[in-house]
């Protein structure tokens, strides 16, 4: 059974940095795509970034491009989201997701989800 466990969220001041981790287990993920999504209160779940686990191009939402970096560590079966220059509008619950195919931008396409980790950016 696939399990995704996020960690690394917290409270940070605007301009600060956080690194989110998503530990994956239960499968061999080499053929999977991994995505990060976020959901602010009262808003829809939005795409943040995605990557093919086997390494390949990375894609980012325009709102985070140049500030966030998605990466994978095969040895640790972990996906990371390095977030820098954080803004109050980045405040949301961040979710890690896995898909048994190529990466996409739509959260509906993903098969497995973590429980989410809260990121709060104060102004």
Verbal overview:
With 123 residues, the chain is an all-beta fold. It is built from no helices and 11 strands. The protein has strands spanning 3-7, 10-13, 18-25, 33-39, 46-52, 58-60, 68-73, 78-83, 92-99, 112-113, 117-122. A hairpin with a 4-residue loop joins β7 (68-73) and β8. The chain starts with a strand and ends with a strand. The relative contact order is 0.31. The mean pLDDT is 95.
Mean pLDDT: 95
Main β sheet profile: 7 strands, mixed
Distance between the termini: 40 Å
What spatial form do the alpha-carbon principal axes imply? globular
Q: Name the assembly state.
A: single chain
State the low-pLDDT regions, or none.
none
Give keywords.
0% helix; 123 residues; 7-stranded mixed beta sheet; mainly beta; 4-stranded antiparallel beta sheet
Give me a quick take on this structure:
The protein is mostly beta strands and 123 residues long. It contains no helices and eleven strands.
SSE layout:
Elements: E1 3-7, E2 10-13, E3 18-25, E4 33-39, E5 46-52, E6 58-60, E7 68-73, E8 78-83, E9 92-99, E10 112-113, E11 117-122
Parallel strand pairs: 2-11
Antiparallel strand pairs: 1-3, 3-8, 4-5, 4-9, 5-6, 7-8, 9-10, 9-11
